[in-house]
Amino acid sequence: MIPMSSHTADPTVQICRSCGGGAPLDVHFCPQCTKVLALGRHGDFFSFLGVARKLNLDASELESRFRGLSRQFHPDYFYNASPAERRASLERSSYLNDAYRTLKQPVARIAYLLELEGFAANASDPSRASKEVPPALLEEVFALNEELDTVRELRASGAPPAEWQARLALAREPIERKRAEHEDQLRALSEKWDAHVDARGPEEDRRAILAALKERMLERNYINNLLATIEREMAGSESLKPEV
Amino acid sequence: MSKVVGIDLGTTNSLVAYVQDGVPIVIRDKSGDGLVPSVVSAASDGTIYVGREAQRRLLTDPSRTVYSVKRFMGKGLEDVKDEARLLPFRVSGEAGGVVRIGLGDREFTPPEISAFILRELKRRAEEFFAVQGEIDPEVDRAVITVPAYFNDAQRTATRDAGRIAGLEVLRIVNEPTAASLAYGLDKRRDGVIAVYDLGGGTFDISILRVEDGVFQVLATNGDTHLGGDDIDQIFVQRLLDQFEQRGFAVHTDGVYSAEAVQAIRKAVIGAKLELSEREETEVVVEGFGLVNEGGATILAARPGLEYRTRMTRAAFEKDIRPLVDRTLGPCRQALADAGLAPSQIDEVVLVGGSTRIPLVRRLVGELFARTPHTELNPDEVVALGAAVQADILVTGNREMLLLDVTPLSLGIETMGGITSKIILRNSTIPATGSEMFTTAVDNQTAVDIHVLQGERELVADNRSLARFKLRGIPPMPAGMPRVQVRFQIDANGILSVTASELRTEVEQTIEVKPSYGLTDEEVERMLVDSFEHAEADFAARLLIEAKNEAESVLMHTEKTLRAPESKDIARAELAPGEHKRIEQAMAGLKHVLRSSDREAIQQWTQVLNDATRHLAEVVMNRTVQAALAGRNVDEL
Question: In which domain, by residue range, is A219 found?
Answer without folding.
Answer: 126-234
